[in-house]
Write a structure and sequence with these properties.
422 residues; alpha+beta; six-stranded mixed β-barrel; 11 helices; 27 strands; 37% strand; globular
């Protein structure tokens, strides 16, 4: 059985858990970039959001529709959950220029720490919202608007308001950005901004007075076409994680015969039975992306896998991609089908006994293919990103079965002797 140094794995865990899922702050903007043109039906207007009067903000509010929110891919109106006004992009035009502001470079560097700093991203203007007195938006997560969407950006204009702080939560931690306080009394025209991953829970607190006016952008990974940017110094998280990983690899007493290290994903990603995991790996976020980036730097083979749970045999089966069992007809156990047709392997945790060969494997003469593999889970498996599949089971009579596959990142570590020679 392979041995390992738990303290060095703990250093890896600590480096990952400190990755922050958002970035935010204050951005100085040229004074001529605060003009907003809006109109819907017979309500037309122009407003300078750096020095808007109460009457002008009232007119803007009246031009808005009640804001909806997404539930199960549908827009829902419920003012007990969200009370605010909205304008769709066809009903307004802003002179605020996101690309020229330099903010996209900031987001690329501060939020996408685990990616190449030249990785291109796109921002799609989505909505304008007005939160007046008594407005709020309870805790929620944003609905992904496509497979390559990874987050949202909120721009807050300097219209006077009290309350309406944006609170973010992820991984048991909480952060808050109070735009009303941050923007008050600024000597230069400025906007507040917060960019965060799509799976970060967030809420807008009750606005006590004034009006909180925001633009929301959806953030997408763009097709790979590196851009010119001054490459910054790697983040402290990246340096710490790489140092801990390098130390582990250099110690020949740790995994002397090589092995597999598993990392449960810390973020949610939109997946279905058609998702290609080789493409999904380019859309990783936060600590997930950082792990993959460092593994690449250390010439380690890292890839996304799917672990299916067979409740009948109580085995976990790992395969290289989503099985896509929809419409399949089975007359065998799920674990047998995944091993026979998808090159699946039974997995168990390093340091625990290997699962015994089940009777159905022996009876079927499949013992030569029964080769369980052990994985040391640096971070535990999670169910944040999983796929649910249904299939037809044939027995005395047909029935509908289902299974869940959880996606994780697995790293292959070579034997110590091979590492030394390489």
């Amino acid at each position: 059985m392979a041995t390992f140094d738990e303290s060095k794995f703990q250093a890896l865990k600590n480096a990952i858990s400190d990755t922050q899922p958002y970035c935010g702050g204050i951005l100085t903007v040229p004074v001529d970039r605060f003009t907003l043109f809006y109109g819907k039906d017979a309500t037309l207007g122009r407003i300078d959001l750096s020095q808007a009067s109460e009457a002008q903000l009232q007119h803007l509010s009246q031009a808005c529709d009640p804001a909806t929110f997404g539930v199960n891919q549908q827009d829902v109106l419920d003012e007990s959950y969200r009370k605010a006004g909205k304008l769709n992009v066809v009903n307004f035009a802003t002179k605020f220029n996101l690309e020229r502001s330099g903010l996209m470079d900031t987001i690329r560097v501060e939020l996408l720490q685990g990616h190449n700093y030249t990785k291109p991203i796109n921002a799609e203007l989505y909505k304008l919202n007005v939160y007046g007195k008594g407005s709020f938006f309870k805790a929620h997560k944003d609905t992904p608007r496509g497979d390559r969407m990874f987050g949202s950006l909120v721009i807050v204009f300097p219209t006077p308001h009290e309350g309406g702080a944006l609170t973010l939560r992820h991984g048991g931690k909480e952060w808050s950005f109070d735009s009303g306080k941050e923007l008050a009394g600024r000597p230069q025209p400025s906007v507040g901004y917060v960019a965060f991953y799509s799976d970060v829970e967030h809420e807008v607190g009750l606005v006590k007075s004034g009006r909180r006016v925001t633009l929301t952008y959806n953030l997408f990974f763009a097709p790979e076409k590196p851009i010119d940017i001054i490459v910054p110094t790697p983040s402290l998280n990246e340096l710490e994680f790489k140092a801990a990983f390098s130390s582990l690899l250099e110690d020949s007493s740790v995994l002397p015969n090589g092995g597999k290290l598993g990392f449960g994903l810390r973020h949610e990603y939109p997946v279905n039975v058609q998702t290609d995991l080789t493409e999904l790996i380019g859309c990783l976020k936060g600590g997930d992306a950082l792990i993959y980036k460092v593994c690449t730097q250390l010439s380690l083979d890292a890839s996304l896998k799917v672990v299916y749970r067979d409740d009948d045999s109580e085995h976990d089966i790992m395969i290289d991609g989503i099985a896509n069992l929809e419409g399949a007809y089975m007359n065998n156990r799920l674990s047998f089908e995944l091993q026979e047709h998808f090159n699946g392997r039974v997995v168990y945790s390093l340091g625990h006994p290997a699962p015994p060969t089940p009777e159905w494997v022996v009876d079927g003469g499949k013992t030569s293919g029964w080769k369980p593999i052990e994985v040391y889970w640096v971070t535990p498996m999670t169910t944040f990103t999983s796929v649910r599949e249904e299939f037809i089971i044939y027995g005395n009579e047909a029935s509908l079965g289902h299974c869940y596959g959880d996606i994780c990142l697995v790293v292959d570590v070579e034997p110590a002797d091979d590492q030394a020679s390489n």
